[in-house]
Design goal:
alpha/beta, six-stranded mixed sheet, two-stranded antiparallel sheet
């Protein structure tokens, strides 16, 4: 198995707290919190993540001509990947700037250009796919997306399918739990809670 799940846990980019859940911006209660930007503070980790992205992109999107990061979490990693692959880079804002040129996309994107979108994590896929649509409206051919971590919600899978957007990830929720148990980040008894949450995250606290 890849070292990426271990790095995410070791750096505390991903925190697991089955008995003391976090509150997401959406209002969901969750036993897991993810902020992959923390790995940027560790040269070995950020390089491993960059190299894993490069490997995934070359294997799945060999005709890529541009790397685009999703603001803000994937801007830095996207730039690192673009640099390693000697490709142009752009990033997509969550909303247009309210001054100047009012750009939604920062950087040069030309019609017909083949783009791979870099994301730090996938939950429902909503904001990630907004970036895909922005690039399509700009005339780009979006080959697909590559993300560090995927919670594995069925909602996200359905959204990506509906948007006709391929998704590859460096690691998954299932991988993470396996590594967390093996390395004593959580106990075997915590697994049931973490697995139940993923099945119905929007109503998880109501059932516990």
């Amino acid at each position: 198995m890849s070292l990426i799940p271990q790095y995410l846990l070791q750096s505390k980019a991903i925190k697991l707290e089955p008995t003391n859940p976090f509150t997401w911006a959406s209002g969901w209660k969750s036993p897991i919190y993810c902020d992959n930007r923390i790995t940027l503070s560790y040269p070995e980790m950020r390089t491993a993540i960059r190299d894993a992205f490069v490997e995934k992109i070359r294997a799945n999107y060999p005709s890529v001509e541009l790397i685009a990061g999703v603001a803000t979490g994937a801007i830095a990693q996207g730039a690192l990947v673009a640099d390693a692959m000697n490709l142009p880079f752009a990033y997509v804002r969550s909303a247009p700037k309210k001054h100047g040129l009012e750009n939604l996309i920062e950087g040069l994107v030309t019609p017909g250009q083949k783009v791979v979108v870099i994301e730090d994590l996938i939950s429902t896929g909503g904001s990630s796919l907004q970036a895909v649509e922005a690039l399509r409206k700009a005339g780009a051919e979006v080959l697909g997306m590559a993300a560090i971590f995927n919670y594995g919600f069925s909602t996200a899978a359905n959204n990506f399918e509906a948007s006709n957007c391929k998704l590859v990830t460096l690691t998954t929720y299932t991988d993470l739990l396996e590594v967390a148990v093996a390395n004593n980040y959580i106990r075997e008894s915590d697994l049931k809670v973490l697995q139940q949450w993923r099945q119905s995250p929007d109503s998880w606290m109501q059932n516990n």
